[in-house]
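Input record, target 12 of the design panel.
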């Protein structure tokens, strides 16, 4: 009798654990809408033009300037100058947050689209413009910077309730990641100190490479391979558990507006691959933040390599993603 009772108790505990596991998986992966499947529609005339503009930005950053970091004198200044001039040509006023790292002055750049009825509430779109040593960084992260610039252009004349800040960050790459020298850390820390009401932050991180080859997509944990596609043709929205609502908002908006494959996850923030970009800095200051990514080295064979050049970018698909992200930004910036 006791043996049977222990058996039933063991089964009951196993059932509870299984239910908790299933519930946890559902909580982490459940997202609104459905990812686009099948053939992509033809590019619109605007997307064709957009793809050319994206290619121009990425070529200037990764081919004409090339590797962009403190160890190549002048390249961070040249890159910041290009970003500043591009924003100004659209009609934005650009401000800089200057600080010193290893004896050199570096800066974050910010352009602001002022909101109307909810101007003190802020949606922040950011991308880092530096690269690791030895890499020209076409995908990591000229693709994110190009997207940042073009989203700003697409929205420049659009009246939005909330203010939108477009921020180019310095020093995301190692050895500065997760240190006081990280540009987004300095920015998020200052925003917190000033009491800035940032309702949403999107980090655009390595978003230009796509593959239709089965098996081209890897994951940091075999767990994800059971739940997500093994073909690297989608854009990903990644957040921590505290940012789950924002992940769902962003992905739901993207899927409503975009005929493009998309996936999302809101997982514990310290899991591999979840926190690896500038959104991490904003989590640390209590803000909701999401990384938008093609998943970097889990898909991209040229990650942090000298071969990360403009010819590796799929400009047509990048244009589709940028069009969708502009709509996501507009949705986040409207009064609910």
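The sequence produced for target 12 reads:
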């Amino acid at each position: 009798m006791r043996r049977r009772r222990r058996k039933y108790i063991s089964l009951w505990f196993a059932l509870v654990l299984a239910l908790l596991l299933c519930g946890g998986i559902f909580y982490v992966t459940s997202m609104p809408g459905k990812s686009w499947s099948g053939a992509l529609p033809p590019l619109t005339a605007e997307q064709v033009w957009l793809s050319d503009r994206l290619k121009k930005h990425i070529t200037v950053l990764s081919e004409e300037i090339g590797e962009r970091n403190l160890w190549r004198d002048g390249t961070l200044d040249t890159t910041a100058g290009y970003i500043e001039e591009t924003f100004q040509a659209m009609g934005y006023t650009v401000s800089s947050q200057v600080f010193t790292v290893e004896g050199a002055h570096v800066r974050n750049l910010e352009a602001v689209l002022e909101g109307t009825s909810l101007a003190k509430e802020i949606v922040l779109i950011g991308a880092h413009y530096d690269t690791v040593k030895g890499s020209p960084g076409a995908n990591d992260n000229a693709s994110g910077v190009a997207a940042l610039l073009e989203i700003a252009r697409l929205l420049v004349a659009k009246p939005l309730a909330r203010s939108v800040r477009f921020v180019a960050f310095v020093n995301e790459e190692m050895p500065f990641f997760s240190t006081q020298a990280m540009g987004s850390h300095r920015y998020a820390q200052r925003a917190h100190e000033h009491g800035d009401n940032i309702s949403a932050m999107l980090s655009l991180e390595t978003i230009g490479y796509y593959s239709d080859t089965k098996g081209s997509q890897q994951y940091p944990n075999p767990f994800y391979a059971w739940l997500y596609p093994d073909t690297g043709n989608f854009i990903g929205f990644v957040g921590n558990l505290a940012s789950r609502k924002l992940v769902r908002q962003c992905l739901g908006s993207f899927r409503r507006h975009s005929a493009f494959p998309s996936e999302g996850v809101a997982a514990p923030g310290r899991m591999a691959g979840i926190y690896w970009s500038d959104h991490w800095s904003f989590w640390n200051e209590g803000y909701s933040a999401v990384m938008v990514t093609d998943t970097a080295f889990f898909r991209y064979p040229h990650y942090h390599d000298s071969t990360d050049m403009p010819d590796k970018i799929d400009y047509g698909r990048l244009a589709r993603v940028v069009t969708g992200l502009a709509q996501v930004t507009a949705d986040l910036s409207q009064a609910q």
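The beta strands are 94-101, 104-113, 118-128, 162-169, 197-205, 235-240, 262-267, 289-293.
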